[in-house]
Specification:
- It is a single chain.
- By secondary structure, this protein is α+β, with helices and mostly antiparallel strands.
- The protein is built from 10 helices and 9 strands.
- The strands form 3 sheets. A 5-stranded antiparallel β-sheet has the order 1-2-3-5-4, with helices on one face.
- A hairpin with a 4-residue loop joins strand 2 and strand 3.
- Helix 3 runs parallel beside helix 7, helix 6 crosses helix 8 and helix 8 runs antiparallel to helix 9.
- The radius of gyration is 19 Å and the shape is globular.
- The termini are far apart.
Length: about 300
């Protein structure tokens, strides 16, 4: 049975005996070997990644354990919502600790450095500003965008020392039956994982366009994270500001690309939430110059 896929070119099929087939065509840039490699790392961390049953790297085909359909986003209700989010945060805290304890196992991973972040962010210019809004961005303006983003990145002094799953949100977490609390969170869609800041996945969990939290919920979860880790509140907030803004600029580009190039218009329903996150994060002193840069373009959706 084919099951709903995500924004990528991957296709999923539910077979018998709790087995899923993932078809990830290499010619479309997908990689099952990367999926297997990250699954191995997560297994070594004693976390719940699907067991790999069989892999065909050449054809881009993989058979893996089926975690079922208690997906956080659909299983969530008023009563269990905060508890599920806290379980997800506990896993991120554990990944940070295990990453520091197992540095050698992560040494082959690409680092989520500024150039990589910029390559993603430029999708905002290419697919939202130029393709969707039909505005031309000069080389000078592009250069300014690069400098402003780089300066903000340098200001947060990010530690690139943690396994970053990159698509860590409630659509990609599945509740499992397990006596160990950390193993109750089933992890999927992690084939793009890199070595980066531990706050990237926290930002994508707390500021997720598919299911935006209200301010009180976000504050409760932030405080939970701080209490569990003793991190500095202001520092955590700045990192979340940076990664949420960067991520949502990228998302704005990607969702418009999905609509314009790939005919997948359903992602456009998330644009209002994306605009809201960008506007909210632009209020941070970290982004004074970025706010000005965007204001000069007079993009009505991003005007506060």
């Amino acid at each position: 049975v084919a099951i709903k896929s995500d924004a990528s070119f991957r296709k999923y099929y539910r077979l018998e005996n709790n087995i899923l087939a993932m078809d990830a065509a290499p010619e479309k840039g997908e990689s099952v070997s990367k999926f297997s490699e990250i699954a191995r790392i997560l297994h070594s961390f004693n976390l719940s990644a699907p067991k790999i049953i069989d892999v065909n790297n050449k054809e881009g085909f993989i058979l893996l354990e089926d975690f079922g359909d208690k997906i956080f986003s659909t299983y969530m209700n008023k009563e269990n919502k905060m508890n599920l989010y806290k379980k997800a945060i506990d896993v991120l805290i554990d990944i940070k600790i295990k990453s520091n304890q197992n540095k050698s196992s992560l040494s082959k991973l690409t680092t989520y450095n500024f150039e990589e972040l910029y390559r993603e962010s430029i999708l905002f210019i290419e697919w939202f500003i130029e393709q969707k809004l039909r505005m031309q961005i000069s080389n000078k303006k592009r250069e300014e965008f690069y400098q402003i983003l780089q300066q903000a990145f340098l200001n947060i002094k990010s530690q690139n020392d943690t396994l970053v799953l990159r698509d860590y949100h409630v659509d990609n977490l599945i509740l499992k039956d397990h006596k160990e609390p950390l193993k109750q969170v089933g992890l999927i869609d992690f084939q793009d994982a890199l070595l980066g800041s531990s706050f990237y996945d926290l930002a994508s969990l707390l500021e997720d366009v598919r299911m935006p939290l209200n301010e009180n919920e976000k504050e409760e979860l932030l405080k939970y994270y701080i209490n569990m880790t003793n991190e500095n509140y202001e520092m955590v907030l700045r990192e979340i500001n940076f990664f949420s803004l960067q991520r949502n600029l990228k998302i704005l580009g990607i969702f418009n690309r999905l609509s314009i190039r790939d005919g997948k218009a359903r992602y456009l329903e998330y644009l209002p939430a994306t605009f809201n996150f960008i506007k909210s994060n632009l209020k941070s002193s970290l982004f004074f110059d970025m706010k000005k840069w965007i204001e000069e373009l007079q993009i009505k959706e991003l005007q506060t």
